[in-house]
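residues and backbone:
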Amino acid sequence: MNNILFYEALTDEQITHLEKEKVVVLLPISLLEAHGPHLPLGTDILIAEKFSQLLAQKLSKKHEDSAFLILPPVPMGVGGISRPGTLNHEQNLIKNVIFQYGQRLHEHGFKQGIIISGHAGRGHLQAMSAASRKLKRQFGFEFLALTSYLFMDAGLKKMGQMVAKEGNHLPQYDGHAGLWETSVMMYLHPDQINGKHHGLPISEDADSNGYRGNPAEASPQIGQKLVNFLLDIAQMIVEKHFWLKS
């Protein structure tokens, strides 16, 4: 039996008969944002959606008694750079959107879920974490703000240490639409790459140039290593949260 499900493809009857205590819901949420001349406005949400699917596949192989229910991606978020095409939202709105998703899931009998973002803006991550805490406090619903663990200060520091242990296999994290993000998009969505990254210089100012980092050095091979690296970290966080509690 396939234990990866897509919410929009189910009927109300199928939702009713799911064993809710064995279901983990995944919510991809990221804004539409300028990503330089080389990446599409949907970069963050495309990454979040694909990462949700890959994480569900990875977890499902080990936790065969669980089901992983993936929601359609929500193209909303906080803190995008101020350039043409960026669609920003207020932090409290994103907190409320996530909270209401969790509340409705709770009302349908679900017990736990994971919030996944391809966007690492501080206000966006704070909205995710605040919604997660409120849902836990009011309803006992566990909505793990996964990306907040990875890209807030403590997570970035730990991730940097883990990257350093990999030696030359992984580059240091370099910000918005740089080597990391461009490489990940080249691996996950090669059809969305226009090739303009090859001639771009290193940038330190995303607001002025649309990107920060070194996209010219990106490659799908680096992207694959980064995605696998992040999936391994995500699996550790999720398993500790849902399956390895003391």
Observations:
- The domain at 4-165+230-242 is CATH 3.40.50.10310 (Rossmann fold).
- The first strand starts at residue 4 and ends at 6.
- Residues 220-242 form the longest helix (23 residues).
